């Protein structure tokens, strides 16, 4: 279990300023190259050798006047569920506000340690004013300025005392990172919402704001994994212009960060060039790939339809026909679990390491039966095969004429590797070396 610190409080008290300070000090925040500032509500921080995750709960919940109470409850619920420590932030420049009192009511139900943080304390007068927050009855008062950093050290000194362990530098290390990509309207958000169980936690429909989470840690169907989604982006009001451009940028970023990508398409439409481009980009980066053909409920079908669709899609996929295809319906929740299961299988397959003896014992006879074509009167001999270290499967074939092995023979070898060892959904790299 990693250490999690959640910041709650009404709007404008300075939650995101503190979040940024904590996270940025570790330089963990990633600024978007595109110049679009994206709200990252989860970040990693460190204090005196203790590693922890910071959540800015305010970023998830947008409230307007009449729904504040609901928004507050949601915020605190997120914090109470996820956090090991809660920072309840108030604004010294404003003083005790009725909404602060609403928070206190909900917070009282929490059994998690709560720290009352009076923000924007930058002079003696502020500090004196801050004493009024004792009336909230939360206990000790921590006066800080998120803007300058004053007081945050004292706060963190006490916060980290609650941690049972020093935490993980990267709590997500070792978990499969799965990205969900695809054109608009294919069903990505619906997929995520099913995974979330309910649209509860992060969604707030109030102003058309969609959850905007990148790298969400999921535990579903007994599996633990990190999902990066690009679905929420489109609806962000803030980014008005050139949505297409940014969504491509975002897809690329998500792709770079993931181990496996789920490319989702609409089964009622053909695999289009955009989809194939995504798959090619993923394959070029040696990422695992699962293709989901969604809205299967809309397809009129008999017992052969899935097979026919698969063959047709494999034809379009060409040299990437090793990508597994799953037919889903987010509407009827058909094969949602299998999709995740397949992505995790692909993740495992991508890590698979075949021993050198196994490779040689199994592949050399195939090669003997079907040797590389003679090149200008020279016999090309493959003597030895080994799998090299790498993030993705990489095989080295040692031969007398590495430069003369044809592309078509390389494909033959790839097919043989797949035939014997699986690697479904995993791009394979083959290189030839001189021996
Ligand atoms: P949030 O809505 O709670 O996330 O609040 P923000 O972090 O967006 O801050 C709201 C406003 O308060 C912004 O204008 C910040 O610049 C300002 N602010 C935040 N922290 C401080 C602080 O420590 N001192 C002062 N003077 N202003 C602050
Ligand atoms: P996104 O843009 O890829 O995130 O797609 P959404 O999840 O927002 O879905 C777009 C539309 O397709 C919505 O109206 C969904 O209700 C609908 N939809 C999603 N999945 C399915 C499905 O499996 N079957 C049907 N019939 N409709 C779906």
Protein architecture, described:
The chain has 435 residues and is α/β, with parallel strands linked by helices. It folds into three domains: 4-162, P-loop containing nucleotide triphosphate hydrolases (Rossmann fold); 177-351, P-loop containing nucleotide triphosphate hydrolases (Rossmann fold, 3-Layer(aba) Sandwich); 356-434, K homology (KH) domain (GMP Synthetase, Chain A, domain 3, 2-Layer Sandwich), CATH 3.30.300.20. It contains twelve helices and 15 strands. It has a six-stranded mixed sheet, sandwiched between helices. A six-stranded mixed sheet has the order 8-9-7-10-11-12, sandwiched between helices. A three-stranded mixed sheet has the order 13-14-15. Helix 3 links the parallel strand 4 and strand 5 (114-119). Helix 2 (68-82) runs parallel beside helix 3 (98-107) and helix 11 crosses helix 12. The radius of gyration is 27 Å and the shape is elongated. The relative contact order is 0.09. One guanosine-5'-diphosphate binds next to helix 1. The site of one guanosine-5'-diphosphate has 16 residues, from helix 6.
